[in-house]
Design a protein that fits this description.
single chain; mainly alpha; 0% strand; Myb-like domain-containing protein
Length: 261
């Protein structure tokens, strides 16, 4: 019976051997084959590793211990922005890269961006984020998404300190919140004048969300106007009722639609 010709095995190049030595501890054989050696089988990888004397590290007893809540939070917080090897190096040196990836997979986490951040990008992030937040970084790095910038800033422990320019999404400073609480009883027009850098709508919405807004009954004229415009977009209704918070308008419209007051 004629035997099948299996062909000649392909020679290993020096660069392949270096790649195997570099990554064999951080990945499973299947991952290593899929990412770096698609032309070789996982069995061939294991055989060459054995020939080179490369062995998977024996997992210490401490690493077999259950994950603590603090460790899980580290993975949940940083996995969307950092690669597993970097998380291990910076935060969890006693855990393996594979273990970190398994935890991320268990929680359904996915790396938000597979594109590594260059040192130039990180320098821009560290320089611009504390002063201008996401919007300023986005202008300098338009190819990075808003979510990627937020996640990377969190991983770098960067905080945005509002400068009071009134841009949409600006965080309210502690001083602003104290001023808002002290004057929460004022009519919307007067209250808005205390925050000249913020739109009037943002001020009354913030007061409403914090439940600091005084109870203000809807007048018959207001109810009539709202009833006549129930099908109008919410943004239009906000313009019709400039002294009412957006959420308050939405709730009142819903009640009128259901036949209530």
């Amino acid at each position: 019976m004629r035997r099948r010709n299996r062909g000649v095995s392909r020679e290993w190049t020096p660069s392949e051997l270096a790649l195997l030595e570099c990554h064999y501890l951080d990945m499973t054989w299947r991952e290593l084959q899929a990412r770096h050696f698609p032309h070789r089988t996982s069995t061939a990888l294991q055989a060459m590793a054995h020939k080179l004397g490369l062995k998977k590290r024996v997992v210490p007893i401490t690493e077999k211990q259950p994950w603590t809540e603090e460790e899980l939070l580290v993975v949940i917080q940083h996995f969307p922005a950092l690669k597993a090897p970097e998380i291990r190096r910076r935060f969890l040196p006693h855990r393996t890269v594979i273990a970190i990836r398994h935890v991320a997979k268990r929680f359904g986490l996915k790396a938000f961006s597979t594109e590594r951040w260059a040192e130039r990008e990180l320098a821009i992030l560290r320089r611009d984020f504390p002063q201008g937040g996401v919007s300023q970084v986005k202008r300098a790095l338009p190819h990075r998404s808003v979510e990627a910038i937020k996640q990377r800033a969190k991983a770098e422990s960067l905080s945005y300190m509002p400068q009071g320019d009134g841009d949409k999404g600006d965080r309210w400073s502690a001083e602003e919140l104290q001023r808002l609480e002290e004057h929460r009883h004022l009519p919307a027009e007067e209250l808005a004048r205390l925050f000249p850098h913020r739109p009037k709508r943002a001020v009354i919405n913030k007061r409403y969300k914090l439940r600091w807004a005084p109870v203000q009954q809807w007048s018959k004229a207001e109810l009539q106007r709202l009833s006549e415009n129930l099908d109008a977009p919410l943004e239009v209704l906000c313009q019709l009722f400039p002294d009412r918070p957006r959420e308050g308008i939405r709730i009142k419209r819903g009640r009128l639609r259901r036949g209530g007051r």
